Amino acid sequence: MDIETDPFIMCKGCHRRSRKSQWESHYYTCPVCGKLKNISAPYRLSIILDSGSMKVANTGISSDDPLDFPGYRGKLKEAEEKTGLKETAVTAVGKISGVKSVVIVLDSRFFMGSMSQACGEKITRAIEYAGRHKLPLIIFSASGGARMQEGMFSLWQMAKTADAVEQFSRDGGLYISVLTHPTTGGVTASFATLGDITLAEPGALIGFAGPRVIEQTIGKKLPKGFQRAEYLYEHGFIDAIVPRDELKATITRILMLHGFKTAGGSNGR
Q1: Which domain holds residue 5?
Q2: Alpha-carbon distance 230 to 217, whole Å?
Q3: How many angstroms separate the first and last alpha carbons of the chain?
Q4: Which tens digits make up the pLDDT trace of 111-133?
Q5: CATH number, domain with residue 118
């Protein structure tokens, strides 16, 4: 049966099949074991932003091939056709429970969410827009790290995005970072871990180098669950682990606590 018409989805965690309608009603969380399925940036935005409030920004920015890397242009075209996106980062302005906000989502379907020159540019522009307009900033990270096909052009984005966050912070902006599965490499080592408040989805892999690389480097076996959200929460690296169906409500409460007036809330800004 074609996967697009199959009414069932198999969980990669428990290997149980459940109806697609059940997955949808649970925000693509396995109805049996609770394991999360990776979701697209457009879907992520649809469940976080108020209906009808979203305006996608920086749509004209897309990856090129600065190093003339063999086969890269063809793979970019394939990724665009597969996802409908021009780059891994999708930036938008919309309302979260009535609060106008800037939201950035990395889509792991596009080159595994890797950070290219275009991705860094889109993120930087969105951060700067949030700063100019005094809007809260929420970034959902999901990345395999820097995009090797762009070499140093990709690695430069670490400093570029980190500098933009630092300026945003100096200007008094509120930045909520949400780490999803996986958040690794240069994204972890730059903007993803610079949030004023850092949230994570259950079971997310979060780190710079992968656990197998670390074990080979230090010659030791890592603790069970190392680099998973739960382990990092226990060691104070993140502030809270939030189930997908509670993310919007959690972000809304954070906005209220920081003085933003949410729909039905009493705080003013």
Answers
A1: 1-37
A2: 24
A3: 53
A4: 999 999 999 999 999 999 999 99
A5: 3.90.226.10
